[in-house]
Specification:
elongated, 55% helix, 4 helices
Length: 124
């Protein structure tokens, strides 16, 4: 059993625990509130998120004229979600961060020539 709802954001808090809420139903000498399930968010889910984003990106580049504007909005929303989940919902912080990372890579690909062009850009 793992709950991952520790109000103090502890992970695998050992016996006797640092707070008065210690509970150990499965008797593994770790507070159940601080344990993260090994199956709660695994590598397969991360691969699925990346795969879906890449497929959506390829589809949008091929069929949508304003795909950059759409992906810029998605990037802004993912940054915001990553920040919010970092404060309140820690179990969603990892997938939100992965989404932000992948979309940021798309963004860097669009602007690759801007950052690494050999000709100086005019100041305007």
């Amino acid at each position: 059993m793992s709950w991952h709802d520790c109000p103090f954001n502890k992970i695998n808090d050992p016996f006797p625990g640092e707070c008065g809420r210690y509970i150990d139903v499965n008797q593994d000498n770790f507070c159940d509130h601080s344990q993260i399930s090994k199956n709660s968010f695994g590598f397969n889910y991360l691969i699925a998120i990346v795969t879906v984003l890449v497929i959506l990106y390829i589809f949008s580049v091929k069929y949508l004229k304003n795909y950059k504007k759409i992906w810029n909005w998605v990037l802004l929303i993912s940054f915001t979600l990553t920040a919010i989940t970092g404060w309140f919902w820690h179990f969603l912080h990892l997938p939100a961060g992965v989404i932000t990372l992948v979309i940021s890579l798309f963004h860097c690909l669009w602007h690759w020539s801007y950052f690494f062009s050999r000709q100086p850009r005019p100041l305007s």
